[in-house]
């Protein structure tokens, strides 16, 4: 289980899953989609949201 792993390892996994090499494009006509890992649980969303929003360029 992901949540049973140490926090440092979870953060490493979140970065692999969430940080993009390219800009993330958001259109005013489209609804932004959250990555699946942010929808797994409240704890995953809380832990991984900062990584997703701070380490990507939108």
Automatic annotation (TrEMBL):
* Record protein name field: Uncharacterized protein
Lineage at the top is: Eukaryota, Fungi, Dikarya, Ascomycota, Pezizomycotina
Matches recorded under InterPro entries: AN11006-like
